[in-house]
Specification:
Layout: E1 2-4, E2 7-12, E3 15-21, H1 22-25, E4 39-44, E5 47-52, E6 77-82, E7 88-92, H2 94-99
Length: 103
């Protein structure tokens, strides 16, 4: 991880990508220094970024249900899904996070 103009970046396949802490973006705490960081690289249109996550659990195919009109305007949340074990999980709106000008 390097710092360019005050922001964290990584180099992946000779491309410099901005790096963000998903925990900080979602207001769930501060970035914590570690030796190794699990990073999810995302792309929306022509924008790419890396999100530091707590851990990688795997990959699943899910059906996204849109949220009710009362919580429809939460920035960064596209909807929700029910996992096979019955847990409800929120789905990130990656395009919204990259496009809304926060980065």
């Amino acid at each position: 991880i390097k710092t360019i103009q005050g922001g964290k970046v990584i180099t992946l396949r000779e491309e410099v990508l901005p790096l963000y802490s998903l925990k900080e973006i979602l207001g769930m705490g501060k970035f914590e220094e570690q030796d190794i960081y699990p990073v999810v690289v995302v792309q929306a249109g022509d924008k790419k970024a890396g999100f530091i996550v707590d851990e990688l659990l795997g990959q699943q195919e899910v059906v996204i249900k849109s949220l009710s009109k009362f919580v429809n305007d939460i920035k960064g949340i596209a909807g929700a899904t029910v996992l096979g074990d019955g847990r409800v999980t929120l789905i990130l709106d990656v395009a919204g996070l990259l496009e809304d000008g926060r980065f």
